[in-house]
Amino acid sequence: MLDVEDLRIRFGTLEAVRGASFAIAEGESFGLVGESGSGKSTILRALAGLNRDWDGTVRLAGEPLGRLRDRAFFRRVQMVFQDPYGSLHPRQTIDRILAEPLIVHGFGDIDARICRALEEVSLPAAMRFRYPHQLSGGQRQRVAIARALISEPEVLLLDEPTSALDVSVQAEVLNLLTDLRRARGLTYLMVGHNLAVVTHLCERIAVMSHGEIVETVTAEDLRQGRVQHPHTVELRALSL
Ligand code: ADP
Ligand code: MG
């Protein structure tokens, strides 16, 4: 579903991503872990079209993504950020926030789609008339997930989607993401630093260090300690 080959991203003289390659099957949930600054968010931002200055090949269901913005591609690939407050416009009601992608991508039945989207993330319909600051952190992340899903994408890019939440709310949001993936047959690419969280959601995990993928393992391999690279061993000792 998503093929990334030799992705390279520079910021001036810094090589933030140094030839990352991975392929994610349809319906698969793939994780990227690694220390802070290893290039995880940079990869997601490039795939979400937020940074158009990269080299390499990216294919969605076999179709190559050009470096220019392609509206169809970016409807099919949506992103959820770590901090749902930062990513929701503070002066827009939830209604407006959810209507915007529908308008941009030319969907009809906006009202019905907004109601369905809120229901899908288990928020009451009356929430649509509130502003982001009137919601809890977990509710805001549910709105961000609803907004990402409302244009019916195939791939969801998740950048530490539960890191900013309380532990009890983290589990709820992870369970919601698991259910949504099953119900919709979505493909996930999730970034995280907490291995327990990433192995909960992801079937395969690539370990990054200094802009490179040093090892790709299954969640089960990680849990059982069947890992090779010293960096993976260390990461596992720190967070599992
Ligand atoms: P991670 O998400 O793994 O913590 P990032 O992808 O955010 O890491 O960052 C990777 C590296 O690229 C870091 O050294 C960071 O400082 C740098 N970086 C990220 N975004 C930019 C930017 N817009 N301009 C310059 N440097 C950046
Ligand atoms: Mg990051």
Automatic annotation (TrEMBL):
Keywords: ATP-binding, Cell inner membrane, Cell membrane, Membrane, Nucleotide-binding, Translocase, Transport. One of its GO terms (molecular function) is ATP hydrolysis activity. Its EC number is 7.4.2.10. GO terms for cellular component: plasma membrane. Its main location: membrane. Gene3D superfamilies: P-loop containing nucleotide triphosphate hydrolases. Residues 2-235 form the ABC transporter domain. Belongs to the ABC transporter superfamily. Glutathione importer (TC 3.A.1.5.11) family. The complex is composed of two ATP-binding proteins (GsiA), two transmembrane proteins (GsiC and GsiD) and a solute-binding protein (GsiB). The keyword Lipoprotein does not apply. GO terms for biological process: transmembrane transport. It comes from Pseudoroseicyclus tamaricis. SMART domains: AAA. Part of the ABC transporter complex GsiABCD involved in glutathione import. Responsible for energy coupling to the transport system. It is an enzyme of class 7 (translocase). This is Glutathione import ATP-binding protein GsiA. InterPro entries: AAA+_ATPase (IPR003593), ABC_transp_ATP-bind (IPR050319), ABC_transporter-like_ATP-bd (IPR003439), ABC_transporter-like_CS (IPR017871), P-loop_NTPase (IPR027417).
